[in-house]
Amino acid sequence: MALHILEQVPLAPFTTMHVGGNARFFVRVKSIEDLQESILFARAKNLSIFILGSGSNILVSGDGYSGLVIKIELKGITYENSRVTAGAGEVWDEVVRGVVQYNLWGIENLSLVPGTVGGASVQNIGAYGVEACDTIFSVEALDTETMQIKTFLRKECEFGYRESIFKKNKNLIVVSVSFELTENGVPRVDYEDVKKYFEKKKVIVSTLVEIREAIVAIRTRKMPAPSIGTAGSFFKNPIVEVSQYEALKIQFPGIKAYPQGDSTIKLSAAWLLDHVGKWCGVRRGDAGVYEKQALILVNYGKATAEEILSLAHEMRCDIKEKTNVLLEEEVVML
Ligand code: EPU
User: Fold this and answer.
1) Do residue 258 and residue 218 come from a single domain?
2) What does the alpha-carbon distance between residue 188 and residue 94 come to, in Å, rounded to a whole number?
3) Statement to judge: residues 101 and 215 lie in one domain
4) Which of 31, 92, 155, 194 is the residue whose CA sits 20 to 30 A from 302?
5) Residues with CB under 6 A from ligand 1
């Protein structure tokens, strides 16, 4: 079937923030051939390209996007013993649900993280003590310079905290991801929220299904309902030198931090925003900070991208002024 490239497509409905203007060109790709053809189209017209998954971690400006938005709809999940391979366009949580049913361990703590499989590898998503890269075996990506598919083994993916080679190198478009899972896993329940959940329930957790249920319950309680416009954590947790942390600890004794195993320490941005900045529940018109999680910016109705950005700017300046810590955005701006 010929590729169906649309013009002037509103992007807001394709994002979980529900804001933003039009894409000059827009296409859904369901095969690698579609993807290659789309890239040639953009090249012929000298257009920039933006790769869209399920729009759960982006903020589109009111001006929209003047290039070609390629929505990745590459599907398919295959099981080969404990190796699971999924198309970049698969919904992340559906893959998690599936592998839990197959009794495969490794990604259950990442239950209910929004987005697609492609996004999960580009972003190296993380939650409750687990990161996607812990179980990623390899990633297949289209290199738009050579137009060839290339396989990247985990060590070649340059994974870091919300980082990967696919995020840094815009010539690489993820088409599928393989995960090496295990049939004999152990529950990972050291993360504060998860530990508390099971302590309260007074049960010793043993099955994958129980963990998935716990994570789903914790996230549902803490995160806004899917109908509310949000892009998850808006800022990254900042990484600072231990010396800076020690100084902050004197000023803010309750400060939450996670040692990185080197001379740096990851601070909880949510804690800083909540306890130092008192940002929970603050609203500027329809743009606001979620009342139960200071890291989550919310579009309560008709907020524009500019209003959300202005609120984020205000929060960043406030934390910088009070702690000298710079918060970096996790959400991708378009
Ligand atoms: N906290 C506060 N006030 C708040 C929110 C949290 O004091 O308003 C405290 C909590 O009590 C906790 C600490 O801050 O001790 C950390 O909070 P939480 O466990 O909710 O985690 P987070 O750092 O805010 C990160 C990820 C999330 C992931 C959770 C759970 C980042 C930027 N965010 O959030 O990922 O789900 O941990 O593991 O790393 C995402 O990236 O979009 C995302 C949702």
Assistant:
1) no
2) 20
3) yes
4) 92
5) 126-128, 192-193, 232-233, 236-237, 256, 268, 270-271, 274-275, 280, 293-295, 330
Would residue 1 count as lying in a domain?
no
Q: Residue 274 has what DSSP assignment?
A: I
Q: Which atom of ligand 1 is nearest to the CA of 125?
A: 41
**Which of 113, 125, 295, 328 is the pocket-test mutation for ligand 1 (most atoms within 8 Å of CB)?**
295
Tell me how far apart the alpha carbons of residues 259 and 5 are, in angstroms, rounded to a whole number: 48
How many other C-beta atoms are found inside a 10 Å radius of the C-beta of residue 183? 10
Q: Catalytic annotation on 162?
A: yes
List beta partners, residue 51.
Answer: 70
Do 121 and 214 fall into the same domain? Answer: yes
In the numeric block, which tokens belong to residue 216?
Answer: 């789903």
Q: Indicate whether 196 and 124 sit together in one domain.
A: yes
- The residue whose C-alpha atom lies closest to atom 15 belonging to ligand 1 is 256
Where does a domain end: 26, 54, 72?
Answer: 72
Domain span at 87: 75-222
The answer to the question of residue 281 being in a domain is: yes
Q: Is residue 48 part of a domain?
A: yes
291 part of the active site: no
244's tokens? 């800076």
My answer on whether 112 and 126 are in the same domain is yes
Are residues 218 and 146 part of one domain?
A: yes
Give the residues across from 142 on adjacent strands: 149, 173
Show pLDDT as tens, one digit a residue, over the chain (334 residues).
Answer: 578 999 999 999 999 999 999 999 999 999 999 999 999 999 999 999 999 999 999 999 999 999 999 999 999 999 999 999 999 999 999 999 999 999 999 999 999 999 999 999 999 999 999 999 999 999 999 999 999 999 999 999 999 999 999 999 999 999 999 999 999 899 999 899 999 999 888 877 778 999 999 999 999 998 998 889 999 999 999 999 999 999 999 999 999 999 888 889 999 999 999 999 999 999 999 999 999 999 999 999 999 999 999 999 999 999 999 999 999 999 999 9
- State yes or no: is 233 an active-site residue: yes
